[in-house]
Amino acid sequence: MEAYTSFAQVYDLFMDNVPYDAWCTEVVKILGEYGITGGIVGDLGCGTGSLTERMAAKGYDMIGIDSSADMLEIAMEKKLESGQDILYLCQDMRSFELYGTCRAFVSRCDAINYILTREDLVTVFRLVNNYLDPDGIFVFDCNTIRKYEHILAENTIAETRDIGSFIWENSYDPVTQLNEYDLTLYIRDEGEGEDARYRRFTETHLQKAYSVEELKAAATEAGMLWLDCVDADTMAMPGESTERLLITLGERGKRPEEKIPAGED
């Protein structure tokens, strides 16, 4: 089943512990360090637009890109409520197309882990590089191998909210570095208390774990510059306990000084 179909209806309710405000502050700080204080910024795997909305409120011209029409429907509802001028595109990050370039791209909440092959990862990085302004940057996070092996592993996560509950069963294969999430949702359809009736939905999600070395090699093959890599939770250098990386890549290929002079191969 396509990911984020049924779950899209209640995604924000079950993700209420995600620190979007802090993530926005971190991203804005990093962009500012590279002189990017405004302009067009693409949000890859934007989901329901929680980070996209916050970035727009900071003055960036946001483009939200996601392959789930159901998630983007929620994002559009937020846009209508906030009045932010955000462009949302229902496109796969492995093949997205824009009419121009962006000052930067961002991607948070492990969207990159949904890229399941190294070839596709290189493709995403190449596309980002292609659609970046000269000296633009790409800031994204990524779950670590340790998180899949030791935190998620074979564990089951279950949570309950007023509208319903979900059960998230994990299964990680260290050989393929793929993590399978079997998601079961029970969403209240009608009634209250003992008279409540629930509908059951199921989804299966796959994510790929990448080492720092694999990410760096893919970025290099795609022609991008490896600028920084920190622990996304502490903003310090990654260590053995790091569960999520925050990586900054730089655009390469549009600088005049790097162009090959005429007559040279």
Provide a brief overview of the structure:
The chain is α/β, with parallel strands linked by helices. It contains 7 helices and 11 strands. α2 packs across α3 and α5 crosses α7.
Characterization of the model:
The C terminus is likely disordered. The protein has 2 domains: 180 residues, 3-Layer(aba) Sandwich (Rossmann fold), CATH 3.40.50.150; 62 residues, N-terminal domain of TfIIb. 27% of the residues lie in helices and 33% in strands. The strands form 2 sheets. A 7-stranded mixed sheet has the order 3-2-1-4-5-11-10, with helices on both faces. It has a 4-stranded antiparallel sheet with strand order 6-7-8-9. The termini are far apart.
Looking at this protein, list some descriptive labels.
globular; four-stranded antiparallel β-sheet; 27% helix; 2 domains; alpha/beta; 7 helices; N-terminal domain of TfIIb; 265 residues; seven-stranded mixed β-sheet; disordered C terminus; Rossmann fold
